[in-house]
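Supplementary Note 3. Input sequence used for the single-chain structure prediction.
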Amino acid sequence: MASNFDQFLAEAIAGLKEKRNAVILAHNYQIPAVQEVADLVGDSFELARAAAMVDASAIVFCGVDFMAETAAILSPAKTVLLPAADACCPMAEMITPGEVLVLHERFPDAAVVAYVNTSAGVKAESDICCTSANAVAVVESLDAEQVIFLPDRNLARYVARFTKKEILPWDGYCIVHDRMTADEVAAARRAHPDAEVLVHPECRPDVIDLADHVCSTSGMVRHACASPGREFIIGTEVGLLHQLEKKCPGKAFFPLSSRAVCVNMKKTDLSAVLAALERFEPRVTVPGDTAARARTAIERMLDLPR
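The predicted structure, written as discrete structure tokens, is reproduced below.
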């Protein structure tokens, strides 16, 4: 239950949001209080679509830096605010634009697929973007038979299971998902023998092999709500449990790992959201040429049939 101070902040945010003609987008990994003040809570694919279509003068992006960059790229006329200016994605920092250029030179016939968890500069040097929800469809849409997939090696290996194309993975990873282990899956099944195991495709292959279903974060919510099952072990960042419990009442959810916490996703709180609306900063912008080339890669993804 929200504290009186949180309630005060939420009411202040609602009033200032209307005055500023702003919309608040929040990732599923944000703290519950931030999720509750958001106009939309979702995974990176849903939020990318919303950023392109939202009718507002400003977007307050409660997530990490690459997400706010994507919003700025898709909505160049809007003010994009990132309440926690230092909220970064370590995986996105594991690949640079210069390294993508080297890959193009080394594999000239290969297409480059950039996971949305990348910087604007990396997207600008890539052919098309993808999210965990549509990565297989994106790869299958390409004419090239050789695909460089960056930066997540685990998602790349997952995609390779469903395509005949040659997948060349970059050696990046999500520090939250990559630390989950097969032993933790076994222990969770012993503790909750009737529960379905849902894991994110950023997990290691041996963890994926032991799961009942592999889904994006919003895919986990849809599956859990539709499933006749009553108990679920959730193999992703613990912030998702708030949406699961909210949208699937009467069902029980257990984190696969108590260590599944992204500290960068937890940097945004209600005070930061309110301050961003009051000051109209920190503002996220992307240089024009980089934004234009990155927009091409993102829009190629968004134009694919869902």
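The chain is about 40% helix and 15% strand. The radius of gyration is 19 Å.
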